[in-house]
Amino acid sequence: MKENLRQVRERVGEGGGKGVRMAGSGSERVAVELCKGINGLDKVVLRGPRGSSAEVYLYGGHVTSWRNDNGEELLFVSSKAIFKPPKAIRGGIPICFPQFGSHGSLEQHGFARNKFWSIDSDPPPFPTNSKSFIDLILKPSEEDMQKWPHSYEFRLRVALGPGGDLMLTSRVRNTNADGKPFTFAFAYHTYFSVSDISEVRVEGLETLDYLDNLQNKERFTEQGDALTFESEVDKIYLSTPTKIAILDHEKKRTFVLRKDGIPDAVVWNPWDKKAKTMADFGDDEYMHMLCVEAAAVEKPITLKPGEEWKGRLELSAVPSSYCSGQLDPQKVLQSS
Ligand code: TA6
């Protein structure tokens, strides 16, 4: 691990071992900083040119913070989150791989979020317009192979775009030497910070079919207008559009989720009763979060040896004075 950090410092060419300076900015802000987070866990801080930032822990390859140019936190992390392996961090963007949910031979949502990732000091060439990104990699140990007998390379790039957008790219390659394919499910289990769940609308999932986790995964069809929230929700929407909008009325903010290679979307809020059963989640925190998760669940992904799957997620936060009609979610969803 230390070897990785040293290699990365050499690669990014920063002075003083703290990170790489912004090209030509002359500012003290460094674009990529390797440091210690909660409980001494290693984390990487990404900084954009106008004040935006993101943080990703090597534990779980887990994004735990995404702030806009004003320093406002856009992701939800529970005040009771346990930053201590083997428990997954409650909030941010947990990586669910190679399983989604609890039906399967592995722990709920698979093991990727419970493992230490390494910094990929020799990533294959992968173009980006971001000056602030980090490449992480997860490969199975011998012990891991006992639980899930497949060899893979999971490369995760976390990047801050010039405008403060947060971009996650997952690339999973089957490196089995025995010629065997493998199949996996996946999700970016994103927790958005919202001012009041009762004043949030989600646009882009109307009229779609979904599996309701609260009704034995039975299949239903969503009603014709925006989703609103008055009770626990746990739905897997199938074959969803590239773009989904999450409107926070009080904050006059719209999150736009753009995804590629990831067909489904999970919408989850535990509401009050379930919130009380979660030790790493405050009783009232359900009011200030909503999970909208780009996911591949209905049709898990199968890779033959040598094949690679890529799943991209791009998050942006745009001002929206929805009540004045300034932002028409349909326009946002149809814009490029
Ligand atoms: O994404 C929704 C969900 O599958 C819910 O069923 C709930 O279990 C949630 O994930 C949180 O799961 P976790 O294992 O992180 O507590």
UniProtKB/TrEMBL annotation:
GO terms for cellular component: cytoplasm. Transmembrane segments: none annotated. Belongs to the glucose-6-phosphate 1-epimerase family. Residues 1-21 are annotated as: Disordered. This is glucose-6-phosphate 1-epimerase. It holds the Pfam family Aldose_epim. PANTHER family: APOSPORY-ASSOCIATED PROTEIN C-RELATED, GLUCOSE-6-PHOSPHATE 1-EPIMERASE. Keywords: Isomerase. It comes from Populus euphratica (Euphrates poplar). GO terms for molecular function: carbohydrate binding; glucose-6-phosphate 1-epimerase activity. Its EC number is 5.1.3.15. Residues 1-13 have a biased composition (Basic and acidic residues). The active site is at 189, 293. Substrate binds at residues 90, 108, 113. It is an enzyme of class 5 (isomerase). GO terms for biological process: carbohydrate metabolic process. Gene3D superfamilies: 2.70.98.10. It catalyses: alpha-D-glucose 6-phosphate = beta-D-glucose 6-phosphate. It comes from the Eukaryota.
